[in-house]
Amino acid sequence: xxxxxxxxxxxxxxxxxxxxxxxxxxxxxxxxxxxxxxxxxxxxxxxxxxxxxxxxxxxxxxxxxxxxxxxxxxxxxxxxxxxxxxxxxxxxxxxxxxxxxxxxxxxxxxxxxxxxxxxxxxxxxxxxxxxxxxxxxxxxxxxxxxxxxxxxxxxxxxxxxxxxxxxxxxxxxxxxxxxxxxxxxxxxxxxxxxxxxxxxxxxxxxxxxxxxxxxxxxxxxxxxxxxxxxxxxxxxxxxxxxxxxxxxxxxxxxxxxxxxxxxxxxxxxxxxxxxxxxxxxxxxxxxxxxxxxxxxxxxxxxxxxxxxxxxxxxxxxxxxxxxxxxxxxxxxxxxxxxxxxxxxxxxxxxxxxxxxxxxxxxxxxxxxxxxxxxxxxxxxx
Length: 381
Prior knowledge:
With 381 residues, the protein is mainly β. It is built from 4 helices and 24 strands. The protein starts with a helix and ends with a strand. 48% of the residues are buried.
């Protein structure tokens, strides 16, 4: 593992706040201390380096957009130059905050519209995540035009953690699902009068979608699809059209959840982990009225993002959840079994992995956390 003197000087809790790394309990995880060597059954090619990369999304032509947390958007093509995209909004950078997710619109092939998330400053040292749209103008000097903010975290609060702000589109392309973290404030996750600690279901213009479970409450409650979440760093639909979400627990208790409308997923009332100061949290099994995870981890895996693999290059992995992991320093393979899941393998890549994506040909792409963070292509040997 490459040595980073800045990260080495930080405490485990500071690492968590700075980059969503594994919390204190993960420091005793042997997977974190001694990651396995790069696996012999994979061919791993390095395809570039980026400064604190956070998200990656492939475009229909096989190129990809890659966000860097400090506020840069890069347009990457395999074998070609990496080009910086102009017109990116200013971001409130620090801790876990900055430029976040990026996704092409369902109609990108004709509209060239992209969706972005980032953190913006408020008043009195507050901040919050926002969702915006823009048109990507392809040219020698590409840029974003007609940038519009279409959604905001409400309320803005102090601190620089748990923004979440991951994007997924429904399989029919009609709706946008967005994760909104509880900003390390705990109780907002159980309060339906705000949109923190929630999975949200929006129209493509950012307005609340009709038929959401709390529409009758009015206000931002109309956006909410599920609640009781902590720091949600992945959201995907499976081949059956079911929605899955991945989130960081506290000291233990990372979760993969099958998301159902109107359900309460328990944070901070229950968790399979405990508070960082050692104070116990009641376990999920004590509250059968609350939605329990499909699988949880203790010690943590400290997830970055995940995919549900549907390609042909790794046929034996089809339908599995592949999780980018900090604590396991690689990929965690998880098999879905009905409404539950089980871990089947940890693939060591000798570095903390922030992002994982499936390429158009079924190859698996990962982005390492940090500066520099390598972009790596995984194919079978």
